[in-house]
Design brief:
alpha+beta, single chain
């Protein structure tokens, strides 16, 4: 299992694109924790910050509050009657816009399409509930920190 779909990644960056050495090392270490199972010993809240800073900010280039660029990622955002783990969008005043709620689950959540224990909805459905409650949302993202959908 890989964090990024190989076909989609190949189409997006082309065959000749090289992954920067710093990024490659980080991705190899993250993938190693998936392969050796150590990622599953961590719960969602233990990994959220690392996933946000390493994968979404360092690798994918989203910017948090306090960076030199406008903020494009924000943690723990109220959407509808709940709080999404991450939101991607434009968070500069006076017109902040959420483009995608990003719901995170722990690595022990192997099936993002299965109802969560104690609930009647799947992680994907949970993310959709956030999306439909907020004007301007264009995408929905869900991850168990092993795969991003």
């Amino acid at each position: 299992m890989t964090l990024f779909n190989a076909r989609v990644l190949s189409e997006a960056i082309g065959q000749s694109a090289a992954i920067p050495t710093e990024h490659l090392g980080l991705l190899v270490r993250w993938a190693g924790s998936v392969r050796d199972g150590s990622i599953t010993s961590q719960n969602e809240s233990h990994l959220e910050g690392d996933f946000k800073s390493r994968i979404l900010e360092t690798i994918l280039g989203y910017d948090s509050f306090g960076s030199a660029k406008p903020q494009t990622i924000k943690a723990k955002v109220l959407m509808g009657s709940g709080e999404v783990d991450l939101a991607l969008g434009h968070f500069s005043e006076p017109d902040p816009r959420i483009l995608a709620p990003f719901e995170l689950k722990g690595a022990r959540t192997l099936d993002l399409d299965a109802p969560m224990p104690g609930r009647r909805i799947t992680p994907v459905q949970q993310a959709w509930q956030y999306a439909v409650s907020t004007r301007g949302v264009r995408w929905v993202l869900v991850s168990n920190m092993i795969e991003i959908r």
